[in-house]
Amino acid sequence: MGEACRRRHGPGAMDTDCISGLPDELLHDILLRLESVRAAARTSVLSRRWRHVWAHLPKLVFDGNDTNSGSAAPPPPPDLFLDSIDGALRAYSAPTLNELVISLPDGGPAIPARRVESWLGFASRHLVRSLNLYVPGWLSTRDWETEAEELVLPTCDRAQDISLYIRSRWRLRIRLAGAFTALTNLTIHGGIMEAHLLESLMCSQCPRLKDLSLRVTLVTESDISLRSNSLETLRFCVDDIRRCQVEIVAPKMEKLFVYKFYASKARISAPKLAKLVWKGNPDAFGSRIEFADASRHLRVLKVTEISSPLMQRFDKVDKLRLDCVNISKEIQAYESFVNDTNNLPKCETLLVYLNRNDHGFAPCMMHLLRKCNSVTNFTVEIYCVESSNKKKPYCPLSCPCRLPESCKAVDITLDSLEVVAIDLDEESCEVVEFVKQLSQCNATTLEKVVINCFNESVNERFCAKVRAACRPNIKVEFIVYGRDGRRVCL
């Protein structure tokens, strides 16, 4: 190999190792595979020339937890890690940078905002295309006990993707004079902002923005208007808007995710809206949500708390998911569940995540099928472990769920139902009763009932009971998932 090097490089090649003779592009490609600036810097022991090659890498990754360094050695102490970031950025030689990733170690000491601001300034000066900054504790309640600090986000002309996870008490400022002309994806989680800065950022400073994820708090309660002609996806979680009005105007928006939305009034203009995920109770302001010109047909609607006014806004949903359904033992809770689900939109796929149910399982599910009789696929996930094995529900004896007509199935016609799937953690006699009632429905197209068991203790006797409760022409499948991920069909 040494002879080959001498022939390739000529006289004097004995003073240069073969690695040093590789072109910079190949060295960069090798170092980028290490996914860590720390690991890349350690390669300098292989070659004298490698000592400075990492300083021209198109991608810099600083991982405080050292998950990608490939070393068995523990990650450096937090203070030393922060110093290494500062030193590496000072030593960086290339005029531009494609990607900068800084993830501070979990459990480290609090870092001042001004230090992070210097890293953002580096990203701006080097025309970074992708910036990902993670400061742990961005959701910590302890942050609100600390003094507020100001963090300025400079404009990044070439940036296409920016993700900021910052401390809750940092006051994020954005210069109104500049623009993020290439930015298509923006995530800001943590921090407090002024409403007018947030409006300016979305309305005028990011003309190509397609995906926006916000989880911030307003400095003071204020009405807010977000307008964008380019936005396609919005994840919206803004605190301190309880007595405020919110306006969202996005003609191209197809996906909207709303979290803990408690504004006094909201107007949403999104004529192309196809997917809506609403986490929280929209009935906190009820009919004051206005979908100005959205279609009455959605591809996906997912709600974590059932809201009759919200669901009545749509006539048809291809996939409807009722998440975290909680029905406590009081009669009023069962009656509220029935009333809130009396006018569900027509859907092809219905998924129910049953987090708590102190009433009869079969009456609740039969009610949903009666109201969604056009459903093709019906899936229910049962996670109410505390009462799943009780022969009787927890609710009072006078509860309507105990009346015979609550489980009456002969009057239910399910012309489209093909598959019913039930996910459970343990055996349940109530599941057997539901399958029995389901078999009595007029469901000629029902082909299969699938029971997914996430507990290896499910036995053959339970399987036999379920199969006996089904009509002979309905195929029953039991799939048991073990702790090691194995999948066994019974």
Can you describe this structure?
The radius of gyration is 29 Å and the shape is elongated. A hairpin with a 5-residue loop joins strand 22 (475-481) and strand 23 (487-489). The strands form three sheets. The chain has a 17-stranded mixed sheet. The chain has a four-stranded parallel sheet with strand order 9-11-13-15. Strands 4-6 form a two-stranded parallel ribbon. With 490 residues, it is of the alpha/beta class. The protein has helices at residues 2-9, 24-32, 37-42, 50-53, 78-91, 113-125, 195-205, 308-311, 331-340, 361-371, 429-439, 460-469, and strands at residues 59-63, 99-103, 130-134, 149-153, 161-165, 170-174, 185-193, 211-218, 224-227, 233-239, 245-249, 255-259, 265-269, 275-279, 289-291, 297-303, 316-327, 346-357, 377-382, 419-424, 448-453, 475-481, 487-489. 23% of the residues lie in helices and 29% in strands. It has twelve helices and 23 strands.
List the SSEs and their pairings.
Layout: H1 2-9, H2 24-32, H3 37-42, H4 50-53, E1 59-63, H5 78-91, E2 99-103, H6 113-125, E3 130-134, E4 149-153, E5 161-165, E6 170-174, E7 185-193, H7 195-205, E8 211-218, E9 224-227, E10 233-239, E11 245-249, E12 255-259, E13 265-269, E14 275-279, E15 289-291, E16 297-303, H8 308-311, E17 316-327, H9 331-340, E18 346-357, H10 361-371, E19 377-382, E20 419-424, H11 429-439, E21 448-453, H12 460-469, E22 475-481, E23 487-489
Pfam families: F-box, LRR_At5g56370
Organism: Urochloa decumbens
Domain F-box/LRR-repeat protein 15/At3g58940/PEG3-like LRR: 117-274
